[in-house]
Design a protein that fits this description.
The structure is a homodimer.
Chain A lengths: L8 E6 L11 E6 L5 E6 L7 H9 L7 E5 L8 H19 L6 E5 L9 H14 L5 H7 L8 E6 L5 E7 L12 E6 L5 H13 L16 E6 L9 H21 L7 E9 L2 H12 L2 H8 L5 H8 L12 E4 L2 E5 L2 E2 L12 E7 L5 E8 L3 H8 L4
Parallel strand pairs in A: 4-5, 8-9, 10-14
Antiparallel strand pairs in A: 1-2, 2-4, 3-9, 6-7, 7-8, 10-15, 11-12, 11-14, 12-13
Helix pairs in contact in A: 1-2, 2-3, 5-6, 7-9
InterPro entries (chains A, B): Arg_biosynth_ArgJ (IPR002813), ArgJ-like_dom_sf (IPR016117), ArgJ_beta_C (IPR042195)
Pathway (chains A, B): Amino-acid biosynthesis; L-arginine biosynthesis; N(2)-acetyl-L-ornithine from L-glutamate: step 1/4; Amino-acid biosynthesis; L-arginine biosynthesis; L-ornithine and N-acetyl-L-glutamate from L-glutamate and N(2)-acetyl-L-ornithine (cyclic): step 1/1
Function (chains A, B): Catalyzes two activities which are involved in the cyclic version of arginine biosynthesis: the synthesis of N-acetylglutamate from glutamate and acetyl-CoA as the acetyl donor, and of ornithine by transacetylation between N(2)-acetylornithine and glutamate.
């Protein structure tokens, strides 16, 4: 279901031959209306891929009729020819669906610095356009996978009659700046582009933006939210934001759970920070400590590595007034050893790190993963 | 030789029983004068270890008679008791050498969050004081090793009659903020504390501060420079700075070459930056990309990961005006693929990444390592 859970949407996922594996690698999602409002959030990486440069122009007027996504190549750092490939892909979609190319978002994911095969893309678009269906959401979710091991989908249905759903791909280069990876969200609620934009930014800020699996920000991150209005229901603003945020959070958790090579899903909860920003900065610093992440892989509750990472930030705290608990065991109280580290059980996949800064009353949780042999293996052999 | 290469210094390295391996774990370096001027640079991590808190007080007057260093425990986040252990260690040295405890620097390295055994430290200080010799520099260098596989020493002798030498330990948590790891430098040149301080800061800024092996800043980093004046020669200021910087650079390169689990030594040279700071920021961003580092481990010239990391910085550059060369092969010119990546040979241990920002005429080189299975293994099992 996912992107086709809401009424007013059709999708397809086909094998265009971009992936050497022969698996599905091109997805198409069409908004059949009656509305075609949309909002997007893109990577804040300054080295943006060609499909991001294209889509930034498309979203200018808040109107999107379709979105085409490919795996098998990022189309990033491919110069003018790469941009032409993106443009031509949008034109192919426009021609097949009878819409304007300027209303077609394009997303790509895969290796940076290699040209995509336009002939394969064009043929794939033609096949996908013919396969569009309200039942093919799963095919689309499969087509955007790279090193993901499973498709990622989420849906929320509101009792008043509208639905919001979505699909995502993640796996590596998983540290979004303002968006993450490729995510397509759809709703049949009646909403304008401005309202969608505000809701999407509010939702991504506390979901995808709090995911930092490997500290590496992508050049292609795109989150798109399309509204068809097909339910005929204008939703309560708060209810819509809540549902949208729920879908984003569920997708973010699926991204975390399927991150490259990970053997632990780590939630770093920072409490009693002076500001929410401080809490995010501290949580992110810990999430980017390779030493901390390797220790968790080894089931080693090495809390000194947590504090060493906290100490690199400029957040408000007294370095000798911090408490740390790991999976419920308070191993450090006010900068001194508390419970013995041997009491901590790190064998479950889920790990909870609680950092109490004693500096205020704001909180934030960053989701990350451990650093494993499989991560190193997968990322030392990805391009070959 | 190392710390005893310059005249006016004695050293010792003994096994105090702090390391479970039974190897040397306590080093003592004594300045026999006639001068006892000194300068230090400490970690900028806000979570500072007790020996750093102590040594910051000691250096206040620029007078240091001796420095005692232990491996087998960082004495960090060990509270008031940990600080008392540091203080008592300095007192033990003072008593044995007939100097003031307030002139004794203390350094510790090892696991964070565990108390050191004061009785072992005191007995070790007594043994080391009895073993002090102008020939025992190597023993001292061995005693400060943790996961280092070999001691690190460097010496420069000036024709005018003075010498500067030093020892270092590194291995992990190797991303200094203003200093790195434990480094003791000695000279018999006639210099006052103020001149030493200026020379030391100038030298560390372009050597240890440009080393970023694993992105993790230590809580215990200390670089100390002691001057005995025993040569009787007041050096030319520029010549002294040059020699000191050379010694620091050689030690930094030894730290890089022996970094935990590394199989490649990577020099990231950023040229034509608008400012030196921009060059450092860009080089450091690349040095902290796990994806880039894992690719180098896999001998994969994945230059897209270089640019993806560059794009996360706020340095001055046109994202589509950057060139990248790897080991002499220009794989990217102005944001487009140039030479085929297959031409790049990454089998040698030394790797050179050249990033041309085309934004000015400043340059900087960051030294880092690849991300390997051995790094993950070593750091998932360190505490156990």
């Amino acid at each position: 279901m996912s992107v086709t859970a809401a009424s007013g949407f059709e999708a397809a996922g086909v094998a265009a031959g971009l992936k050497s594996s022969g698996k599905r690698d091109l997805a198409l999602v069409r908004n059949t209306g009656p509305l075609n409002a949309a909002a997007t959030v893109f990577t804040t990486n300054r080295c943006k891929a060609n499909p991001v440069l294209w889509s930034e122009q498309v979203i200018g007027d808040g109107v999107v009729s379709a979105i085409v996504l490919n795996s098998g190549g990022a189309n990033c750092y491919t110069g003018a020819r790469g941009f032409q490939t993106t443009h031509a892909t949008a034109e192919a979609v426009a021609e097949k669906l009878g819409v304007s190319a300027g209303d077609v978002l394009v997303c790509s994911t895969g290796l940076i610095g290699e040209q995509l095969d336009l002939a394969k893309l064009t043929a794939g678009v033609e096949e996908a356009a013919g396969a569009l269906s309200a039942d093919a959401g799963l095919h689309a979710a499969e087509a955007i996978m790279t090193t993901d091991t499973r498709p990622k989908e989420a849906v929320r249905r509101d009792p008043s009659g509208w639905t919001v759903g979505g699909m995502a791909k993640g796996a590596g280069m998983l540290a979004p700046g303002l968006a993450t990876m490729l995510v397509v969200l759809t709703t049949d609620a009646v909403l304008d582009a401005e309202t969608l934009d505000a809701a999407l930014r509010a939702a991504t800020r506390v979901t995808f933006d709090r995911l930092d699996s490997d500290g590496c920000m992508s050049t292609n991150d795109t989150v798109a939210l399309l509204a068809s209005g097909a339910s005929g229901v204008a939703p309560d603003d708060a209810a819509f934001r809540l549902a949208l945020t729920d879908v984003c959070r569920e997708l973010a958790e699926q991204l975390q759970a399927d991150a490259e090579g990970a053997s632990h899903d780590i939630a770093i909860e920072v409490v009693n920070a002076r500001s929410e920003e401080d809490a995010v900065v501290v949580g992110r610093a810990v999430s980017r400590s390779n030493l901390f992440k390797a220790a968790i892989f080894g089931n080693d509750p090495n809390w000194g590595r947590v504090l060493a990472a906290v100490g690199t930030t400029d957040a408000a705290f007294d370095p000798y007034g911090i408490d740390v608990a790991i999976n419920g065991v308070q191993v450090c109280t006010k900068g001194e050893p508390d419970q013995p580290r041997d009491l901590v059980d790190l064998t479950p996949r889920a790990v909870h790190i609680l950092i109490d800064l004693h500096a205020g009353d704001e909180t934030a949780t960053i989701l990350t993963n451990d650093l494993t042999h499989d991560y190193v293996h997968e990322n030392s052999a990805y391009a070959s």
